Target: Flavorubredoxin
Amino acid sequence: MYNVREVTKDLYWVGGNDRRLTLFENIHPIPEGISYNSYLLLDEKTVLLDTVDWSVCNKFIENVKYVLGDRPLDYMIINHMEPDHAACIGEVIFHYPDVKIIGNKKTFTFMEQFGFKVNGNYIEVKDGDTISSGGHEFLFISAPMVHWPETMATFDTTNGVLFSADAFGTFGSLDGRLFNDEVDFEREFLVPARRYYTNIVGKYGPQVQTLLKKASELDIKYICPLHGPVWRTNLDYIIDKYEKWSSYEPEEKGVIIVYGSMYGNTEAAAEDLARRLVEKGMTNIVMYDASKTHVSYLIADTFKLSHIVLASSTYNLNIYPPVREYLLTMKELNLQKRTVGIIVNGTWAPRAGQLIPELLAEMKDMNVLENKVLIKSSMKEENIDEMDALAESIIESMK
Ligand code: FEO
Model:
């Protein structure tokens, strides 16, 4: 059975929701599900914008057939070749063999690499090119690394719809809703949106900034991303979030404490610090056990908050592995501009105390606080002063 929504006059959402997938990209848990958005315009020529993941391909084809009725599919614009959007290109060609595919040079290179045959039936476009479908004109905006090198956004200059590819997307299934004003975005989608952006696109902040600059010159009425709600009101809200995330500026003053603890002693030291921070007036604190929280959640809150505290045991003369994974992921994602406090535990050789600052030194603009805390096996009276000094220096650095 088809399941479509009208976005605006003659434009339809023909995507699908996936609540079965456990790990997005086989890495990131998505208990909230995900939507794969595809859009279909009925103009003098009919235009499909992107396809969907294989998991919802049958539903998608049914949707496309329903909206098109007896009409042929004339164009298929491919903004992004990652298989969560491009997997069904072959199915579309199978059902509509005369469709002309629109993409850029890299789009077609990747299409071939993924095994799709377009048989010369394509139009290659580059940044700034336009194509008319009769009543609508599409402007192509290259958006390399948002989130792959071939990625582009497409702007319908006639109705102000920006097809933004992965940008402005989020984890979370739509559940019948489509528009941002049909959901409580802050309550339902802000946390998944932040986790989606920071982990999937977070590394490419400068490229996202470039896209935001190009977008600021357009009169955008709708943002149609490839995942999550379509934005038709309050566009500045999500654009402001993207400004912050892509410039690595924290959204809030606050502390994420991430600890790695084998027997609870490092955890107890982290708890001690958390209590001191609250007693000194900083209540915006989240605490995570790195061993049991997927790193994507840690990364999302690290982008959100201004301060990080790492509390790590030493393990194999190294940083405790889950804390190390967190640090390495942070580095890979280009995270920067944070103030960091360090608590280290070592029963005989607290090597983590040396290795954590070394890793942080490889990242940009990380302010590592001088007042580190070193505990031997467990926190004791003798550690109280240095723990209090660490708490004090975190508070001071927020002023
Ligand atoms: Fe949703 Fe980069 O694919």
